[in-house]
Amino acid sequence: MVLKLGQKITESELISLCKRKERQAQKMLYEQQSPVMLTVCRRYISDLDMAEELMINGFLKVFEKIEQFKAEGSFQGWIRRIMVTTCLEWIRKNRQLYKEVDLDDINPVVDFQTADKNLEAEDLLQMIRELPQGYQTIFNLYAIEGYSHKEIAEQLGLSVNTSKSQLSRARVLLQKKLAEHERITESKKRDNGS
Question: For the chain, N or C: smaller number of CB within 10 Å?
Fold first, then answer.
């Protein structure tokens, strides 16, 4: 099957073509999935250039391992797992997991009734990106990807208690950031006479 410009094909046809190493199909798959997968990589890697590089490496793995996809679940979910694993491998290799933040002075008070009205999804994603790498990684794996602490510990080569501790610290820092965001928002409202 030769792909023509603007041709619509099904996901299973696209997968089949990618399994035959058809370059046009690989390009089509990349163009369809790269915006979502870059977002996945950015949840783990705050530097855009590095996130893009890891996403590209992830797609190379997708094309190498596409024979392993058995259509027993979501194809996008399968690709997502490869992207997450690629990012985690880079994080482990570069020892980006263990930067600690002193939490002793943090005592956030967040009014969650008004915070959700004033907080956009992009603001929250940015707050997560600003977390130290280890906290960000574990928060993403646990809260967004749905991994258990046992699975996180196995993926990252650390103890279950370390995973729990880093998640707890990530939550405390996020609460601090939410409290600060709420304080700034309320201050702006007062200044504007709202």
Answer: C
